[in-house]
Design a protein that fits this description.
The complex is a heterotrimer of chains A (about 300), B (about 375) and C (about 375).
Chain A (H helix, E strand, L loop, with lengths): L11 H5 L4 H28 L3 H6 L14 H40 L6 H13 L2 H15 L2 H10 L11 H26 L3 H8 L4 H12 L1 H17 L2 H7 L9 H4 L5 E2 L2 E2 L1 H33 L1
Antiparallel strand pairs in A: 1-2
Helix pairs in contact in A: 2-14, 4-8, 4-11, 4-14, 5-8, 6-12, 8-11, 8-12, 9-10, 11-14
Chain B lengths: L3 E11 L5 E12 L4 E5 L6 H9 L6 E6 L2 E2 L10 E4 L11 H12 L4 H15 L14 H13 L5 E5 L7 H18 L2 E6 L2 H7 L2 E6 L2 E6 L1 H6 L4 H6 L6 E8 L2 E4 L2 E4 L2 H7 L4 E6 L5 E2 L8 E11 L3 E8 L7 E7 L9 E5 L6 E4 L5 E3 L7 H6 L3
Chain C lengths: L3 E10 L2 E11 L4 E5 L6 H9 L6 E6 L2 E2 L10 E4 L11 H10 L6 H15 L14 H13 L5 E5 L7 H18 L2 E6 L2 H7 L2 E6 L2 E6 L1 H6 L4 H6 L6 E8 L2 E4 L3 E3 L2 H7 L4 E6 L5 E4 L11 E11 L3 E7 L10 E6 L9 E5 L6 E4 L5 E3 L5 H8 L2
Parallel strand pairs in C: 3-8, 3-9, 6-7, 7-8
Antiparallel strand pairs in C: 1-2, 1-4, 4-5, 9-10, 11-12, 11-14, 12-13, 14-20, 15-19, 16-17, 16-19, 17-18, 20-21
The chains are: A mainly alpha (about 300), B alpha+beta (about 375), C alpha+beta (about 375).
Amino acid sequence: MSQSSPTGSFDVASLVEDVNLRRVGQYALVVFFLGFFLVPLETGIMTAIKTNESVARSLPFAPPASEGFTLGNIQFALEQLSGSFFNSLVMSIPATIGSVLFGSMAAYGLTMVNWRAQMGVLMLFVVGVFVPYQAVLVPLARFWNNIFPLARMIEPMVASIPFFQGYHADLVPLVITHIAYGIPICTILFRSYYQSLPNSLVEAGKIDGASITKIYRRIILPISKPMFGVVFIYQFTQIYNEFLFAFTLVTGSDAPAAPVTLVLPAIGASTSGIDFGIRMSAAFLAAVPTLILYVAFAEQFAKGLRTEA
Amino acid sequence: MARLTLDDVTKVYTDDGGGDIVAVEEISLDIDDGEFLVLVGPSGCGKSTTLRMMAGLETVTEGELRLEDRVLNDVSAQNRDIAMVFQSYALYPHKSVRGNMSFGLEESTDLPDDEIRQRVEETTDMLGISDLLDRNPGQLSGGQQQRVALGRAIVRDPEVFLMDEPLSNLDAKLRAEMRTELQRLQEELGVTTIYVTHDQTEAMTMGDRVAVLDDGELQQVGTPLDCYHRPNNLFVAGFIGEPSMNFFDGSLSGDIFRGDGFDYPLSDATRDQIGDASDLTLGIRPEDIEVGERRSGDRTFDAEVVVVEPQGNENTVHLRFAEGGEGARFTATTTGRSRVESGDRTTVSFPEDAIHLFDGETGNALKNRELPSNRAIGAYISD
Amino acid sequence: MGQIQLTDLMKRFGDTVAVDDLSLDIADEEFLVLVGPSGCGKSTTLRMLAGLETPTSGDIYIGGDHMNYRVPQNRDIAMVFQDYALYPHMTVRQNIRFGLEEEEGYTSAERDERAVEVAETLGISDLLDRKPDELSGGQQQRVALGRAIVRDPEVFLMDEPLSNLDAKLRAEMRTELQNLQDQLAVTTVYVTHNQTEAMTMADRIAVMDDGELQQVASPFECYHEPNNLFVAEFIGEPMINLVRGTRSETTFVGEHFSYPLDEDVMESVGDRDDLVLGVRPEDIVVADTDPDDAAIGDHELRMDVTVVEPHGDQNVLHLSHPDQPSDDDALQAVTGGMHLVTRGDRVTVRIPPDTIHVFDAETGTAVHNRRHDQEADLTELEQ
């Protein structure tokens, strides 16, 4: 064992031992997949800002030449979509808030409060997650149209609210359906978070003299803020993008209450063919609300994922 | 007035397979108004379950729990007028110190806001945490969180304090400090306190009385020195005291106790106390063993030093009888300035007035050590 | 060979200096304990030794080889973590074996054999096929040790390995660890905040505070000959009594009493004026007083007992000066377990002149340590 001087004994071998062919290969793979996923996106954006002729003549992912550039597509798509944007938000926001809030309450009741038959109820929630959309479409349509025509009943009431039209009443059954369908998955998500919280928090609350609902409102609800961020984003994306229920309950892209997902497939299609520029513009516009949401809640979202892990 | 009574209290859990697990078995305790009672035992002995039943966080399977004359069995935790300090402190992470402390008053009383504010401030003054009022628990050190948890209990001015190992998350120095501080606070406030711990030092130093539990059953209730000098059985003798009492299994032949590696003659007086038990366990506390003082005698034996643990003020010396097997190890304490090293040969004497004898089968104490007729000792040991 | 050399080791995290200019030589087969309050840099030092942190400057040598830039797996060390860090999905056998899996020069059968061998050393052979969550805390602790031992490294690094165990088990594991280290004769660096562990286990103790090394010495020296106020306060439980005051001629004058210093002490004190007088609680002699007896010796004071903490083998008394009862913890004294004093008693307290420590109040350095007659104490135990 040689005792070398401190500066001379720089252990070069251990510094470079990890830099080898395998690592080079790993990085190459990463670059390849980056391209693989990003090129379609880039192609979409390029197509959205090209004129029809330019789309036909240039390569899909090439940027538009000066005379091929246009913002007309986006403008047209926006005009077409503006009504349905409003419809979509009117539907998604209350549905998301409802399902998240009820889900959190149910999770609290199923995790932090002890009562009999708890397991049985929990199983129902788990099963609820797995009920396929398709299986309930027909009963759903019959229920809201024939058995309990809620939309028709409240139409005059809705019409009297400022900014709303009578046809917006058609969205109410959709909202209720989404809340019901969203509760199970929200409950399961919140449950895993509540299970990680120390039980002594609820016990301390009890000993402090607070009732079960008080403990939820004043202790658990404020603590679960980060989790709300995660579940809210997830649930909003689900509901905003949902097509089947909307198609069943609102019927068709020409209905005045149609949300974005119904209108989108119809835009840019005409007898003379498909206008790719308009389609792409509409698609990007439709994605904007979810993007805004992600950016706005990014911090909460990351925090929530961290606390859950 | 708050006198808490447990009458044959039993707790039975049902496990996943449908079987019954008895966590607490027929515990009867009478806790006086203003008393500081420590429930102590190894983990799983049922001490926390007992405390949680008092708190109303667990139901009582059988028996009765009374506060004065009021039966508490079916009263919910919210309505018991008790305060509890948790091991994990259970501070509300999103509330400031002030919010944490006022929450209980807001929920359990109709006090106006400014009165609540005033009481919270009085309590924080008492605990020396007034400057932390607007911080959140995440910004506090362990000792400070501990104080806030205490403050949350004190501010409510309850009939009973329940404390579940409140000091176990603190480091050694801080724990010793908080021990005396808690004692002083309790005396000042005069509130009946039940304190759960697995640490016998806390039990000895803090309790007016100590209740030792093992395996769901009450082993002994008495003053700390009662449990130390006059244990009911082997379990209490071994659990109370640090380092633990030495035990030697053996049998009686005539007037001589024969253990592994040593023969110990018993005087007639001792012999009379044992009755006709023949399988015995001899016990002696490490500090009662005289190391290297006498050179010969009936109750003096040759021994070899195995390990020395210096503590500064005293040394814990692990020894082995020269003639005993590998298992015949025991410990003695010597003063801190004597330098003993492993491998040394020495003699050890067991004075007869310091030995305990236990029934080898049941573990019950047959003879406890003699105590000097000291006025003070009498005051500390209840009859 | 497992000797360790740290020279001018420094670690910065941003602006905070965690470890400041630390130099330390650890001999082969030595058991060194790094001790200090939380945040003193002891864990950072250990993690630098392990290769989990890179030093900002300074050098680490193990067995004469420079280690600064070497990855942990090439350092021939094994580490035991505070939370054990057992792999939950593997059996005990697989956990222990795992440490060998990356090691070359073993056949699969040899690895199995070695794992069984280690399990035997630790007395956990019957647990080999269990998973970690089926084990008690003490057993998990042993498996964690096994995983370190199996690799037969040059150096063991232990980061508070006993802090998750309860008091009884901790005392047991302390002796066991010591025995094991003796048996395996591997250089061990052990980090703890618990001064009892440091005192009882170490060959030498390195006391750290605020990133700086305060003293490296045997437990005996750290206790009886502390370098400075910090070491004197940190080592020893209950804590050393410290009284601030000034020197007037050859007398130490504190707020409530004065204490004549003898020639020997004066020689080391010189012309320093601001002093701190220190005395260990067990060195204070407490006698019951007759209140009418006015005679008080040079080194005696009258005090009131405010708190009595019985430990069984000893009692810790908290004392206050009669003219300032609000400071109820002015001095602490330890008396024998059979000598009982009651709260409220007035007692005579004697501080023997040969037991005092004197510190410089400004710098905190020790100017005079207690006298002790080592030879006399040593012979007492030898035959």
